[in-house]
Design a protein that fits this description.
The structure is a homodimer. Chain A contains 10 helices and no strands. By secondary structure, the first copy, chain A, is mostly helical. Chain A binds a DNA duplex through loops.
DNA sequence: CTCGTAGGCGTACAACGTACTCCTAAAATC
DNA sequence: GATTTTAGGAGTACGTTGTACGCCTACGAG
């Protein structure tokens, strides 16, 4: 009976994401998104009640590109988790400005819930259950969230390589030396290295020896 | 020759932190901080050039309460790192609203650099060096940053226990079951459990067996 | 004394999110 | 085809934010 909506939430989110990619987080205003859609500012409020809701749509759009199906062809559960984690990183990397939004709206994303479901399945196959599985998932998520943010908001490798350069070397001997190494490490290598640490730690502490 | 400043950066930061604790992040405005200090809004700009600079002062104030000296009396390096990590968590926990700010201004905090220096020292004693040490520090920081945020911004345990309740159980079997467990786990237990994962993973992969 | 800088106030502006109102357009019902 | 129901969309306006700017005053060193 009513007139059909002429804009899908997806189109809305795409427009907002386009603005976000072009002008960054500070440029993501209701007016800018409205202009992008060639409509008046207030027209947006026909589709969202809030700026927050718009943000959530953008986050969902980004996470929506994450394939939630379990990877196949990987015997080792660690490899499968690695693939799942990489899928999220790749999705977010494609739109760096979305990073701060993902943290705030993480829990509203169905796509990320699907992702969690699959990861939980893999963890289950790995022999984890109950409380241990909760903590494993949470630990993985914590690392993922933290690592992505450090990568995009944290100047350079290490805690701000630039700042470290102008530091009294006698007070910060390790930091100075570490910065030298940090400069040569690619972000991807750093990310994977950290992920390896977490994955190693996830192995059953009762039977730390790998089947390989 | 000039008139001395009548307000130290520390007093400024304390006032801002008081506002932050009382009114939350949204309440932290230049006007609110000025009122807290019983001065005009623009008077603040005698001390900071920016709102961002004010935020950085607050973050530094919070991190300044973290004891950067290496813990003594702990034979195992893992226990010493645990203590260092807990110090940061405690400091941030005392002012939850500061969490979003810590991420943005993390790299400007000298206190956090001191903390990193100490942690690097411990990692060195643990036998890590070069690139492995960089990645270890970065991995620890990633987990720390992520875990603290999940704890404070992530509704409940697991990725939003509330949302999960209204989810089709046949599509999310693991998530539903996991949520049951998650509800019973204390945040501290979750945090420590995740930290244990990282610490286990930090152990030399060439010699995974613990001395114990 | 006086000079240079900090202290501090008040005004003003641009940009933001968004509440509200008014009119038009189009599909479903009769 | 007329009527009804809802979405579409524009325009105006308000409160709040950060902050640029200008103006005096207070004070300590020379």
């Amino acid at each position: 009976m009513p007139r059909p909506r002429s804009l899908t939430p997806d189109q809305l989110a795409s427009a907002a994401l386009a603005v976000l990619d072009r002008d960054g987080l500070a440029g993501l205003t209701m007016r800018a998104v409205a202009t992008q859609l060639r409509m008046s500012t207030m027209g947006l409020y026909r589709y969202v009640t809030d700026r927050a809701e718009l943000e959530a749509l953008v986050v969902e759009l980004v996470f929506g590109t994450v394939d939630p199906t379990p990877p196949t062809g990987q015997a080792d559960w660690r490899d499968r988790i690695r693939i799942m984690v990489h899928r999220v990183r790749r999705a977010v990397d494609a739109h760096p400005a979305v990073v701060p939004l993902t943290v705030a709206h993480r829990h509203t994303s169905v796509s990320l819930l699907r992702w969690s479901e699959t990861v939980l399945g893999i963890l289950t196959e790995a022999g984890l259950d109950g409380g241990r599985r909760v903590i494993a998932l949470r630990g993985l998520l914590s690392y993922l969230v933290g690592a992505i943010q450090l990568e995009h908001l944290g100047a350079l490798a290490g805690p701000g390589t630039g700042v470290i350069a102008g530091l009294p070397p006698d007070e910060f001997p390790h930091l100075g030396e570490t910065a030298q190494y940090a400069r040569r490490i690619e972000p991807a290598e750093e990310f994977d290295g950290g992920l390896d640490i977490v994955l190693r730690g996830l192995a059953d502490p009762v039977a730390p020896a790998d089947p390989e």
